[in-house]
Amino acid sequence: MTNVLFVCLGNICRSPMAEGLFKKLISDQNLQAKINVDSAGISDEEEGNQPHPGAQAEMAKHGLDISNLRSRPITTADFHWADLIIGMDSQNIYYLKQMADSSDQKKIHLCLDIVEKEAGQDIPDPWYDHKFGRTYQQLSRALPKWLDYVKSNLH
Ligand code: 4NP
């Protein structure tokens, strides 16, 4: 099994959207028995809450239902569970690297680093400008490449 964890600040916008989309890509390739996916937030501000209505609406446009997801803060156990930890912006990466043991540092990656022309760029927080379509498009460029990465590097 390979365990993949998506992380953002609140775990109600970007990372649950990533979880929902990555699960769809995994099921399209019949890889459910090989890859687990979860998401978490740096902050506990939204703990227990559903994904933002705008995030749910954007995913629904693409036939994806993420209404069952609930926000939760990342814990130290997540760093042991995960083989790959994908953060959405440089602030997420900063906090993840602060929290992780030295042996887990290499698991941490910035989401858009896998997209050659967008490497180093953040996926901005749609919580402020409600541009959930932009978030979906960014994730849909990066996540198929992360799935290829998992298939070729972690199995
Ligand atoms: P997310 O968006 O990190 O993409 O889930 C946010 C959601 C909530 C907050 C910040 C970002 N907040 O400050 O509560």
How would you describe this structure to a colleague?
The chain is built from six helices and four strands. The mean pLDDT is 97. It is globular, with a radius of gyration of 14 Å. The longest helix is centred in the C-terminal third of the chain and has 23 residues, at 132-154. With 155 residues, it is of the alpha/beta class. A four-stranded parallel beta sheet has the order 2-1-3-4, with helices on both faces. 4-nitrophenyl phosphate binds at residues 8-14, 45-46, 125, 127.
Radius of gyration: 14 Å
CATH homology superfamily name:
Response regulator
- Into which percentage range does the β-strand content fall? 5-15%
Q: What topology, given as strand order, has the largest sheet? A: 2-1-3-4
CATH topology: Rossmann fold
Terminal-residue CA separation: 8 Å
Query: Total helix count?
Result: 6
Largest sheet: 4 strands, parallel
The tally of structural domains comes to 1
Going by helix content, strand content and strand pairing, the class is: alpha/beta
Low-pLDDT residue spans: none
Strand segment tally:
4
Helix content: 40-55%
- What is the second-level CATH architecture? 3-Layer(aba) Sandwich
Along the chain, the helix and strand elements come as EHEHHEHEHH
Give the CATH level 1 class. Alpha Beta
* Rounded mean pLDDT score: 97
Bound compounds, each kind once, are: 4-nitrophenyl phosphate
Structural shape: globular
Task: Give a concise summary.
This protein is 43% helix and 14% strand. It is built from 6 helices and 4 strands, in the order E-H-E-H-H-E-H-E-H-H.
